[in-house]
Structure formats: structure tokens, C-alpha cells
Amino acid sequence: MTSLAPRQPFALVVRVVIAALVVLVWWYAAKSQDPALSDATADWILVKAVSTDLSPFEDVRILAQELGVPYRSLAKTSEPVLHYRTSGGLLLLSPLMLVDGGKAHVVMGVVGMLCFLWILLVQTPRYCQTPIERLLVPLALASVSAAFIETIYWGAVSSIVGALMISTLIRAPNHSAGVPLAAATALKLYPGLLFVPLLVQRRIAVGVGLAVFAALTATGSALFDLSIANTARLLVQGSSIWLSGLGNVSLASLVGGTWAPSGIFLAAILVGILVITIYSRRRPLAQALALSIPISVLVSPISWASYDIALVPIVIWLWTRRGYPLGRYTAVLWLVFQAAASEISALGAIGAVRVAVVGMKVLVALAIAFAPAQLWEPVQRERELQPTMG
Fold this sequence. Notes:
Elements: H1 8-31, H2 39-50, H3 60-67, H4 87-93, H5 104-127, H6 131-144, H7 146-154, H8 158-170, H9 178-187, H10 195-201, H11 203-224, H12 228-242, H13 251-256, H14 264-280, H15 285-299, H16 312-319, H17 325-346, H18 351-369, H19 382-385
Helix pairs in contact: 1-5, 1-6, 2-3, 4-9, 4-11, 5-6, 5-7, 5-8, 5-16, 6-17, 7-17, 8-9, 8-15, 9-11, 10-11, 10-14, 10-15, 14-15, 15-18, 16-17, 17-18
């Protein structure tokens, strides 16, 4: 007979404390948010625009005026403010039309909060080995994760995308791994790099994922009367525009924003694909997928602080590997930088700070790449670790 009595109350207290903290942070972030500045408002405008025969590739401020919705951009420029989404992404965001434009950020905030809680309260126990880790590690991450705060405050989809990417990692042994990845790639293109290790080791999963992605794209294009070729062209153009943005902390932006041409991000993506392909032939699929997450954020032409939310369970895993010093040190450094990431973003992530943020993502990728392969598997459940009596 297995006894779980001593640990069940502790686990419950941990989950209640973390959930309360996350809800509290979400409440204050949402309460202080101006709906007119929210990414969710921009998403609502795009979806509403395509349903009223307007182009989603126009200046969001002009679209907002035509739709009668207050919208203000942080970009202090007379140039058009563009907010691109794929056809599949617009399809997935179309339920936003069911709510008022001013409430879109609340809806996205609630969904993002639930995704973040799932990451912390469901996934964290898979990698933490002791009760104190189950309390302190997720509590620290929940309290200082700028990725979560950025996501909630700006009404962005990063928490949702992060949860979908992590779900892909968890489903790695199954053919269904391509389904959440297809949805994540439709919302944000950078998760698509995770298809590479699946292509090497789980080709059926790739087929399933690409079929779902194609279905989302085709349905969105037909429903909203958008040309797939024109949409792809405008997405590439939009990425080039944001390549030199001060808040963009991708590797391509760091290099391309100084001396290299805007096409540098295409070269970075090709290098990322090559690295992941070689790695996937030599390491377990789950570890290859884990490495793909920080690399995909690095080689993305646009990488905001909120994208790091997908790294939360990976950093927890690095933290809990006591026999792997590089991983533990990496987790500590990442935690410190995440604590300051909101302020970094507010300052435009310029100079040495911007380099440091990119450097931390590189370090996380290296820590995963050189980790002993057998350490990637999640720890056993408590009931499996308990001695059997009687």
C-alpha cells in the first residue's frame, strides 16, 4: 500500500499559493492596462476588419478609426503601424469578435493566465524532484517572470503559444505532437522550427501538423478572402521592418541592427534548421525539441521578452539537475535576467543589456545542448518513488 498523506497537503498549499500569486499579478496588470494599447485590441481590429471587407494589412490606427474602436500605438511615428497575422492566426483569433473590442484584452489575459498556470502547476512537478523545489522554483518564476507580466499587460498571445509549444514537447512520442505545434505556428511563425526534429524522428507527426496548419491557413484565407501568397509576402516585409526595433532582442536583430542587411534573419533561420537537424539525429526527440525552443526564439526576426515564457519549464528542468552545474548556473542567471526583463523592455533593451538578453538565450540553448541525454526525462511521480508497504 502506498502512503501519500504526508505530501498531498503540501502539494495543495503550493498550488494554491502559486495560483493566488499569478491571479493577483494578472488582476493588477489587467486593471492598469489601457485597452487602446493592447495587442489583443489590435488582434480584435484585424479580425473585425477582415469580416467587414477591410484589409488586415493596413495601418491599424486607420482601421481602428473606420471600425470606431480606440487604439493607440507605442510607436511614435507617422509611418503606418502594422500588426500582421497569418490567415490561420486570424482564424484562431476570430472568436474575439464575440466580445466588445474594449474587452478583448481581458479575454486574452484570462486565457493567457490559464496557460501560464498550466505551465507552472501541471508541468513544474514533472521536473522538480523535492517538495521544496516544487514550492520555491515555480514561486520564484511566477513572481518575477517578465514574460508572464508582458503577456498579460499587453494582451499578447505569447502565453498561449508557449503552452502549445510545451504541449508539443510533452506529446513528442505521439503522432499528435504536430497538432498543437500547427496552432502555435499559425499564431506566431517562430514555433515552426520545432517541426525540424519531428521531421527527423516523427515524420507522421509532421504530416499531421502540416495538414492541420494547411487546413487553418486555407480555411482562414477562404473565410477572410486573403491571398496566401500576398499574406506571406507582407509577413516577410513586416518582419524586416521590425528587425531594427529597439525592443527586438533576437540574435538576428542584434547582428542585423548594426551592420548586416535585413536578410540576415533568413540566414539565421537556415543555420538554426541545420543545427537542429544535426542535433536531432544524435539526441532523443524530447531534448531536440527542448533545444529548438530557445533557438527558435533566437533566430526569429522578432523576439520580445514575452516569448521567453516557453522557456519556463526548460529552465525549471535545468535548475533541478544537481549533477549538471552548467544547467543550474544557467537557470540562476536566467532567473535574474527575467526579474529585470520588464524594465529592460521599457528601456528599449539597448546597448549591453540587449546583448545580455540575447546571450542568456544562447546560454540556455547551450545548456540544453550539452546536457546528459538521460537527464531530460521528467522525474517519476511521487507515488512511484514511495516505498511499497504490505
